[in-house]
Design goal:
Blueprint: H1 2-16, H2 20-47, E1 54-55, E2 62-64, E3 67-68, H3 69-85, H4 93-112, E4 116-117, H5 129-148, H6 154-178
Antiparallel strand pairs: 1-4, 2-3
Length: 182
């Protein structure tokens, strides 16, 4: 409950400041993680071997094979934190790559300590790091920056975030309760 309260606090501060660009960027980041987690769960189903990544350590609640409630709350806040670091104008790519590299470092540490597992050799250090950086994190940071940089174009931001939410909801419902694949 404390982590949920923290997430609500972070978003309530931005709503209070009427920084809906930050709120929507944070939600876009979080929804990209859900998309990746649904795909990861489908890999487990169709490979009949293993997901691309698996949470193997203790958790309060395992949502999907690679997603815990703690990770979900982290990703819910991470996009907000990221866009608050972005300067007005300029290239976003140094920030996207830098934040992604930091996230990959944390993931490597979690893997090394046994809290996170990569089954497939193409994820292994060092060769898998670029894959994790690009597909595991840079897409999240890119979409957060994209939505954030739309500024006051609220309808466009809402379309992006809404589209991600619909894709995730359809994927979770279709591949979860309907087909029983995740």
């Amino acid at each position: 409950m404390v982590l949920l309260a923290f997430v609500f606090y972070v978003y309530s501060v931005e709503v209070e400041r009427r920084r809906y660009d930050i709120v929507l960027a944070g939600l876009a980041f979080w929804l990209m993680d859900w998309f990746n987690e649904v795909v990861n769960s489908l890999v487990l189903h169709f490979s009949d071997r293993a997901a691309l990544w698996t949470v193997t350590g203790d958790t309060s609640y395992l949502i999907l094979i690679g997603l815990t409630i703690e990770i979900s709350f982290l990703f819910a806040v991470n996009g907000v934190i990221f866009v608050k670091f972005l300067p007005a104008g300029g290239s976003r790519w140094p920030y996207i790559i830098g934040f992604s590299a930091l996230a990959v470092l944390v993931e490597v540490l979690l893997h090394e300590t046994g809290y996170f597992h990569w089954e497939y050799a193409f994820w292994d250090v060092p060769w898998g790091l670029p894959l994790i950086l690009v597909f595991g994190y840079a897409t999240f940071y890119w979409v957060a920056a994209k939505v954030y940089d739309m500024g006051d174009d609220r309808p466009r931001q809402i379309r992006w975030v809404g589209t991600l939410a619909v894709i995730d909801a359809v994927g979770i419902l279709l591949f979860g309760p309907v087909l029983g694949w995740i």
